[in-house]
Amino acid sequence: MVTTREVTYEVDGLTMVAHLAQPDGEGPWPAVLVGHDGIGLENYQRERADLLAERGYVALAMDYHGGQWFPGNPEAMLARVLPLLASPERMHAIGQAALDVLLSVPGADANRLAGLGYGAGGSIILHLARTGVRFQAVAAVHPGLEIARPEDWASVTGTVLLCTGSEDPICTPDHVLALGHALRDTEADWRVNIYGGAQHAFWSAPTDSAGVPSGKTTHTVPTVPGVEYHPAHAARAWRAVLDLFDETIS
Fold first, then answer.
1. What percent of the chain has pLDDT over 70?
2. DSSP single-letter state for residue 227
3. In this predicted structure, what is the pLDDT of residue 4?
4. Which domains are assigned to the chain?
5. What does R_g of the chain's alpha carbons equal in angstroms?
6. Using CB atoms within 10 A as the burial measure, which of 41, 54, 145, 239 is most buried?
7. Can you tell me the distance from the alpha carbon of 162 to that of 122, in angstroms, rounded to the nearest whole number?
């Protein structure tokens, strides 16, 4: 059995509304911090936390929009996300606040800690890893990447997994190569999965303007350019995340 509940906390001038999922019992459990995509904390990331709890992890799907989300409104989403990603201090504060909430859960094992992030949430998770959070595993699915330098990754302690599409205009081949070179030079344990033909946010099933799944295979409401659903690669990326966590923190 799995127990879920909303958790609120204050950071970045907002009341964040996160989703906590944990197994029944007393633990200790490996702990996973989940960062949502730029659109906001939606059912996909909540379900990731629930599925992880079913496998014996305590998982917190963080919020970094103060309970807001932006289906069909890419302009409002970018107005929130781009300034955030441009501020390492804000990213750190938001990520650390969520991590503190996760590790305050009775039974959460700080020595078996992982991060999982999608899009901008992946950027926040990677930022935490770069700045000294001792994740045993970090999985970033189509994050926005800067051109990496080895010195920026010297503090990474755990295994890094990057899942991205070959056609992603935000996580480009140049970004992926630079990250690989940086991680190689720091002698980190890392791997990259590139999914042929996949674009940005390839896990994101199309919805209507209210965020309700449309059942369609292509997006019919506005999104940022370069976003397209690829169900086969979405399943493959999730399997890769589970394999990583099974290997490193189970």
1. 100
2. B
3. 98
4. 2-248 (3.40.50.1820)
5. 17
6. 41
7. 9
Q: Give the model confidence (pLDDT) of 27-48 as tens digits.
A: 999 999 999 999 999 999 999 9
Say which DSSP state 200 is in: B
Element (H, E) at 91: helix 88-103
Rounded (10°) CA dihedral 240, 17, 212, 221: -90
What are φ and ψ of residue 106, in 5° steps?
A: -55, 130
Residue located via tokens 């970090």: 138
Q: Which two tokens stand for residue 195?
A: 């999914």
DSSP class of 180 = H
| Contact assessment for residue 112 and residue 30, using Cβ atoms and an 8 Å cutoff | yes
For the full predicted model, state whether its pTM sits above 0.70: yes
Residue whose token pair is 């990447």: 145
Residue 116: name the closest of 102, 104, 107 by CA: 102
